[in-house]
């Protein structure tokens, strides 16, 4: 078998199969491999007319089918299965060949794999791919990390299959070295968790406080999707809420169990944020909200606890409240992205990646799950001010937050009054108020730490580190 394929895909489940078809549709000859050869045969039989495929039965045939430098895309389950595939194929490759992991790998695993394969003369690219099976086929957002040399060879191919923003720019770019791509994809998913939680809370408020039906709320979300909240998640929310269950005739949302599952990337985002010391409270509350929803034993035990009885609004009051919910949702969404980009900046500094935040926003404008109209404004904000510390410091976003905050506060207050849980909206508002406060109660916290553990503190009136002798005359000593 001669090396005629420009790229190969091993692992032909839904994502791998669709990615292979996407490459073929864009004019590339694609080598195919799967541990179960029936999947390879099925793809060629069903979709062979879409382009040029080379079916390989063995790893040896697969490697031989690829032109040099070989570009081998792995689309298998993250973790040990990915390591197993790498160990199987690496001995068949030669110096300069490129191994691409398109799964949802932990970025630390990607850093390790990149280092190990680099020692063997091979390039390893950890490519975060967002957009689900539809995106894989028709154009995803792709976040590749790895060497600049590997992107020079692989990048044009990724650019040809990626989604395109409205200005025609492909939604992929070289994110940075080793694990940068998978790190950015992880944070993307963390923002996705927060975005979905905020939308769910908005739905709950419109139903529990405004008294709207799911069909009416679907209309509200459709209206919002024509304005500044224009996004894929708002669009599909309207679709889900408008759907009627065929078996019962009830709104679809009423026949789905209220237990949200998760695959782990949101949890990783929070864990790594803690390691970096970055506050991502909105993302954390979204992860915890999913966790709480699954603890049915706790929820069953607490259903009779006292609390306010919800009294839905009506008429003009309900409509006014819906407008305030839009303001709260938009402001909280900005906070979620602010926290996510802060984490990317911190990760970039920690690992020496030099990630361009404006380019990240540009890559997310189409193809991915969190694609939204205002990402182009985020891209522009970082393009004009690369040193921008926080999106909340951008003049346009600052003005919008200022205009929205009265409605935001009213919504959170009404939610508390009526006993509607809004961990995402409330956490976003607390984060905002924490940033704008002249002084935080952390001064008292630091005093407590010094009192019980002699952890020292710093003063506002002079430099140095100090400790108070709390058990005696409470005199102060300078410690450094």
Overview of this structure, please?
The chain is α/β, with parallel strands linked by helices and 480 residues long. It has 20 helices and 9 strands. The strands form 2 sheets. Strands 3-2-1-4-5-6-7 form a 7-stranded mixed beta sheet, with helices on both faces. Strand 4, helix 4 and strand 5 (98-101) form a beta-alpha-beta unit. Helix 12 packs across helix 13, helix 13 runs antiparallel to helix 19 (423-436) and helix 15 packs across helix 19. The longest helix is centred in the last third of the chain and has 37 residues, at 315-351. The mean pLDDT is 96.
The averaged pLDDT comes out at: 96
Report, as a whole number of angstroms, the end-to-end distance.
71 Å
Could you say which overall geometry the principal axes of the C-alpha atoms support? Answer: globular
Range of helix content: 55-70%
Q: DSSP helix count?
A: 20
Strand-residue proportion: 5-15%
Largest sheet: 7 strands, mixed
Task: Characterize the quaternary organization of these chains.
Answer: single chain
Question: Structural class, please?
Answer: alpha/beta
Rounded radius of gyration (Å): 26 Å
What's the SSE pattern? EHEHEHEHEHEHEHHHHHHHHHHHHHHEE
Number of strands: 9
Neighbour order of strands in the largest sheet: 3-2-1-4-5-6-7
Poorly predicted ranges: none
